[in-house]
Amino acid sequence: MRIEKRRTKRIDVDVTVSLRQLGDSFVSGYSSDTVDVHVIDISKGGIAFESDYDFKINSYYDTIITLANKESFEAVIEVLRKDVHGANNVYGCRFVGINADDQFKIDVYQLLHDNGEAQ
């Protein structure tokens, strides 16, 4: 049985965002300033995304996340873990310094999602 370590509830999402690296080289084999990734879930604490690129653990990225209810916010994320799933990797990330207003946007989205109103 797997032990749940997350502090906050995750919500399934289907969003594509662009990540811009903060610091040194970040993706092996990639030379652009940004990388588009597919976000698969979100919580007040962070996101999980899929990508075929090799992101380094403990690296930081800037992004803008737009939820299905059209709320958006800027965030800095830190990559904490990587799981290999076929051709793609799934990365677990935490938000760094997310403010209360942006956490509230995620709370509202979660309520809409739980009531079947978020798409």
Automatic annotation (TrEMBL):
Gene3D superfamilies: predicted glycosyltransferase like domains (2.40.10.220). Residues 4-103 form the PilZ domain. It comes from the Bacteria. One of its GO terms (molecular function) is cyclic-di-GMP binding. This is PilZ domain-containing protein.
